[in-house]
């Protein structure tokens, strides 16, 4: 699996979701100006990244012949 480029793309998309989530949680935990400026923006980016990650996971399962 790690040699499959499509799997690597799926894995990177999941990592991107985790990074955006951690940035949002970190900003929420510390509060202040950063959180006020970027909280909604980070939430939107996380939702978009999560949507793309789910689509890529479904495409991976579909094209590799697995079952959901």
UniProtKB/TrEMBL annotation:
Keyword Transferase: no
Claim: Transmembrane helix is one of the keywords in the record: yes
InterPro entries xrefs: Hypoxia_induced_domain (IPR007667)
Name of the protein in its database record: HIG1 domain-containing protein
Membrane-spanning ranges: 6-31, 43-63
NCBIfam families in the record: twin_helix
Domain HIG1: 1-68
Domain of life of the organism encoding this protein: Bacteria
Higher taxonomy: Bacteria, Pseudomonadati, Pseudomonadota, Alphaproteobacteria, Rhodobacterales
Pfam families: HIG_1_N (PF04588)
Swiss-Prot/TrEMBL keywords: Membrane, Transmembrane, Transmembrane helix
